[in-house]
Design a protein that fits this description.
The protein is mainly α and 123 residues long. The chain contains 6 helices and 3 strands, in the order αβααββααα.
Length: 123
């Protein structure tokens, strides 16, 4: 089985809405996105959902008049695949280098403490 293509930033945004709220109609996705993106038209959301379905990023239940869209992959599975690709391409396959780069300036003190607690538990 082939893996779905990598989502664009706009597609990731819509996937995030669906992962957070669950399967939804285009109208529901548009309403959920309206707070952060009031300029986004309903037609744009519908068109993007249709494209994502065609690409294999979403499933679509067509049993009701309003189609219901859902992510084709779980959030952690898709993120894991994207992360593996990033590690391979940008960090020569080194997960350690990715983590070190992330810790340099991309982690708040609170997040750093949470990471340290996880590392302490794993030791």
């Amino acid at each position: 089985m082939s893996t779905p293509p990598k989502p664009t930033p706009a597609e990731l945004e819509m996937l995030g809405v669906l992962w957070q709220h669950g399967a939804a109609t285009a109208k529901q996705v548009h309403a959920a996105m309206a707070a952060a993106r009031p300029d986004m038209a309903y037609a744009t959301v519908l068109r993007q959902l249709q494209v994502m379905h065609t690409k294999g990023l979403l499933t679509r239940d067509e049993h009701q008049r309003a189609h219901v869209y859902a992510p084709a992959q779980a959030q952690d599975a898709l993120q894991s695949g994207l992360l593996k690709d990033l590690i391979r391409k940008a960090f020569s396959g080194s997960g350690k280098d990715l983590v070190l780069a992330a810790l340099r300036g991309h982690v708040t003190p609170k997040e750093r403490a949470e990471i340290q607690a996880i590392l302490d538990r794993e030791s």
